[in-house]
Design a protein that fits this description.
The protein is an alpha/beta fold and 444 residues long. The protein is built from 10 helices and 12 strands. The N and C termini lie close together (7 Å).
Length: 444
């Protein structure tokens, strides 16, 4: 029995190890494998809806594509991708997110090219294989189609046809205009084709959660999107029957006009936890607690559970001060594994005790676990760093949304109200029966 037969350490009552094993045996017999996992129920329309539907917490890892055509054979759906999924399972993940891209030339164009480094048909086949690989291993899947802006700029500042903004010396931008209603309608039409194309992939491969968009601030936080956005959600639901979310930026989620239409509020949670360099653990933990309070307040206001569709920190000094700064724009940065680990510990300890918090996806690893070309050493990946141990601990912890309690604790949060006790990770490895008594067999 090889590593592909490992059942992840999920508290997922719908997964039968025997069903998963049968699916692994059959994997590869067809281009489109039906998921061996039963469909998940939709969360109830209330803040605690994820828990009330009997859904265990999302312990997720984002698997990014290998974003370079010079590296064939190691992207989504390949043997390398299978190794990356196995590595995520060993870390303790129960879900993975996949992030295919569509391409825009700039933030001022209206059209979206469905192809990204390969023809769209090849991309959908590769993503479909990756979904099937994940399901065969017992992993649940969230599909998160992104927009890539070829000439630079942020997808949250799309204003088709408007004059380009001017970057100022302080790093901000001088805004020079907004798109006309007609231009936004043209963009919305193009985006609809992009979103429905990936909704069809999600339906065909039994994806559990689909994000209808990522950080589309200039559109989906404005009155221009109210009717078009609602129509988009209706159209997507006609193509795809699973759970819908939207990946809002951390600082504009309150303004998104579609929160009523989706099932789970998603946040790309690059929250700052401190406002100055050199913050200590107590200050970072206080920042994490503030994030937890915001999550609970948002869920209560909209009667929806909340998830972090992305959460991550780079491996550099003070990553929790400006966590949205991308590693590609940095040069000669000191690698600081402890700072990354402390940031993860602070934000995740602040949210896993909130009853409305459905879970999170770590940003990110890549489809080839052995590839080091995608980001510099100070980038986001946690594998092989101190933050890997922190993420392991959090994955193994009890979340408030979970309906079960282990006899151990992490992050100082004791399971039964006693002071937190220390333990070594092997004691709570996914193959130990007392993680979920009687649920999983001993590790072969």
């Amino acid at each position: 029995m090889n590593s592909h037969t490992h059942v992840p350490p999920s508290a997922d009552p719908w997964i039968s190890p025997l069903i998963v094993l049968a699916a692994i045996t059959a994997l590869g017999s067809s281009a489109q494998a039906a998921s061996p996992l039963p469909p998940l129920p939709h969360p109830a329309p209330r803040a605690t809806g994820w828990h009330d539907a009997g859904l265990p917490a999302i312990r997720g890892m984002t698997i990014g594509p290998i974003e370079n055509a010079l590296h064939p054979g190691v992207g989504y759906g390949t043997n390398a991708c299978g190794k990356s999924l196995d590595a995520s399972i060993e870390l303790g993940a129960t879900w993975i997110a996949l992030t295919p891209f569509g391409r825009m030339w700039s933030t001022r164009t209206t059209g979206i090219d469905l192809s990204f480094e390969s023809p769209f048909e090849l991309n959908t086949e590769a993503v479909g294989r990756a979904i099937d690989q994940a399901h065969a291993r017992g992993l649940r899947v969230m599909l998160v189609p992104h927009l890539w802006v070829e000439t630079g700029g942020w997808r949250g500042e799309i204003e088709p046809g408007a004059p380009p903004d001017i970057k100022k010396d302080d790093g901000g931008y001088e805004l020079r205009g907004r798109a006309t209603d007609a231009a936004m309608r043209t963009f919305a039409s193009s985006y609809r084709k992009f979103a429905l194309a990936w909704a069809d992939v999600a339906r065909a491969h039994d994806v559990e959660v689909l994000s209808i968009g990522v950080e589309l601030r200039s559109w989906l936080t404005s009155g221009r999107a109210v009717e078009e956005g609602r129509a988009l959600v209706r159209d997507i639901r006609a193509h795809y029957a699973g759970i819908l979310t939207y990946s809002a930026n951390w600082d504009d989620v309150d303004e998104v006009v579609l929160l009523r239409e989706i099932d789970v509020i998603g946040i790309n949670a690059f929250y700052p936890l401190a406002d100055k360099a050199g913050a200590g653990r107590d200050e970072l933990l206080a920042g994490g607690a503030r994030v937890g309070a915001k999550v609970q307040a948002l869920a209560t206001a909209w009667n929806k559970p909340v998830m972090f569709t992305e959460v991550g920190y780079t491996t550099r000094p003070d990553p929790a001060v400006r966590p949205w700064e991308w590693p590609d724009s940095m040069k000669g940065v000191k690698v600081d594994e402890e700072a990354q680990s402390e940031a993860y510990r602070a934000i995740l300890s602040g949210v896993i005790g909130e009853p409305a918090f459905a879970g999170f996806f770590v940003w990110r690893q890549f489809a080839d676990p052995d590839d080091v070309s995608q980001e510099a050493a100070w980038g986001f990946p946690v594998r092989g760093k101190l933050s890997e141990l922190t993420v392991r601990e959090v994955y193994a912890s009890r979340f408030a949304v979970d309906g079960w309690q282990p006899a151990w604790s992490v992050l100082g949060l004791a399971a039964f109200g006693a002071p937190g006790s220390s333990w070594s990770y092997p004691k709570v490895a996914p193959w130990v029966a007392d993680v979920r008594p009687g649920t999983y067999p001993p590790r072969p």
